[in-house]
């Protein structure tokens, strides 16, 4: 069910609920630190929530919209596993797709659906498998503040163009290659933000090596300025105003 259709029959979330859902999504997609990913993902959600067809709808000028319900529906459509299994927003998926997505939920990616903004240990976090949650509390607090700033337009975006969707290295080849010449890769890396961040010109190299080079992956995961994801747009899409952000 398209988000535009489902939005008419879904509850209107509060800013806190929107903030929580957006933080779960960015945590699942990029971990605790990368502000570049946080900004890029939000801009993709504004454009329609990701995916090839969603990009076409945005290109046709259906508008980005700052309606909280539509934004929640778009996030649920793109990453349903970051929503609780009983979330009303999962109606945006067909019953068949929802069942398939639930079967694909694993511990590694399902715990984010129980994440809360107070940074208490998520109900799905199993310390017998992962590290103690206590070691993540400080990073969690910084993440919550950072995602709030993105939603409120306080973080200046550094992406060099509009964004329709995001993905992995494989998505880069599928979307930016011969299958669809309308796709264009957008860079969202930022200048170094804290001590230890790599120079911005090294971000692309680290991203390309992350699955084959342990040191490159470590540097990428520990940076705040390099995006983990690849970001894409349609060549003809219009860029929304930079001030068009969600305000509490």
Question: TL;DR?
Answer:
The protein is mainly α and 248 residues long.
Strand content: under 5%
By secondary-structure content and strand pairing, the structural class works out as mainly alpha
The biggest sheet, with number of strands, parallel, antiparallel or mixed sense and barrel status, is: 3 strands, antiparallel
What is the residue-mean pLDDT, rounded to a whole number?
77
Architecture overview:
Helix content is 42%, strand content 5%. The chain has helices spanning 3-6, 15-30, 35-47, 52-59, 68-78, 95-104, 107-110, 137-151, 169-176, 203-209, 214-222; strands at 165-167, 183-186, 230-234. The protein has a 3-stranded antiparallel beta sheet with strand order 1-3-2. Helix 2 crosses helix 3, helix 2 (15-30) packs across helix 8 (137-151) and helix 10 (203-209) packs across helix 11 (214-222).
What is the topology?
Elements: H1 3-6, H2 15-30, H3 35-47, H4 52-59, H5 68-78, H6 95-104, H7 107-110, H8 137-151, E1 165-167, H9 169-176, E2 183-186, H10 203-209, H11 214-222, E3 230-234
Antiparallel strand pairs: 1-3, 2-3
Helix pairs in contact: 2-3, 2-5, 2-8, 3-8, 10-11
């Amino acid at each position: 069910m398209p988000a535009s259709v489902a939005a008419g029959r879904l509850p209107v979330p509060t800013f806190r609920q929107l903030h929580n859902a957006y933080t779960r999504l960015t945590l699942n997609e990029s971990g605790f630190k990368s502000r570049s990913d946080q900004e890029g993902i939000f801009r993709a959600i504004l454009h329609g929530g990701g995916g090839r067809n969603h990009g076409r709808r945005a290109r046709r000028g259906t508008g980005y919209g700052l309606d909280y319900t539509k934004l929640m529906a778009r996030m649920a459509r793109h990453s349903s596993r970051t929503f609780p299994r009983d979330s009303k927003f999962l109606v945006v998926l067909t019953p068949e797709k929802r069942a398939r997505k639930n079967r694909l939920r694993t511990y590694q990616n399902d715990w984010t659906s129980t994440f809360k903004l107070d940074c208490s240990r998520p109900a799905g976090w199993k310390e017998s498998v992962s590290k103690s949650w206590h070691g993540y509390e400080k990073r969690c607090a910084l993440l919550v503040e950072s995602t709030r700033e993105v939603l409120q337009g306080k973080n200046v975006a550094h992406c060099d163009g509009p964004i329709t969707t995001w993905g992995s290295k494989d998505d880069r080849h599928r979307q930016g290659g011969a299958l669809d010449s309308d796709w264009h890769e957008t860079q969202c890396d930022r200048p170094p933000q804290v001590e230890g961040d790599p120079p911005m010109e090294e971000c692309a190299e680290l991203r390309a090596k992350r699955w084959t080079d342990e040191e490159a992956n470590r540097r990428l995961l520990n940076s705040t300025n390099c995006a983990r994801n690849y970001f894409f747009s349609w060549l003809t899409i219009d860029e929304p105003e930079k001030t068009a952000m969600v305000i509490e």
